[in-house]
Design brief:
Elements: H1 6-14, H2 21-43, H3 59-80, H4 85-102
């Protein structure tokens, strides 16, 4: 950042990316969830447990698996269905809730 502002540096470094306000909110939401999970882990440490998943997992493991599977749900939704992405978000949120509780 020699002689420029932070905005100039960000534009130079990330200007090639197609950032929109929706993309920014998405990544801020993921960051916020990671912060909440970290604080929750420090406040109430988790133990590994066996749910319906074929492996023993911690809360963080289930969260990571949930994020990955939510991405695949969205990709499958885009590729296979001609419905709005708000439905994919609802399905992903429901799957994440089930996975975190019973996985």
């Amino acid at each position: 950042m020699e002689g420029g502002t932070l905005a100039d540096w960000l534009d130079h470094s990330f200007g090639w990316m197609a950032w929109t306000w929706v993309t920014g909110i998405f990544f801020l939401a993921i960051l916020g969830l990671l912060v909440v999970m970290t604080v929750w882990e420090f406040a109430m440490p988790t133990l590994q447990r066996k749910g319906f998943l074929p492996i023993s997992t911690t809360r963080g493991d289930r969260f990571f698996i949930g994020l990955l599977s939510a991405a695949f749900i969205h990709l499958a939704w885009l590729g296979l269905l001609d419905a709005g992405l708000s439905w994919a978000l609802a399905v992903s949120a429901a799957w994440m809730a089930v996975l975190l509780r019973y996985g």
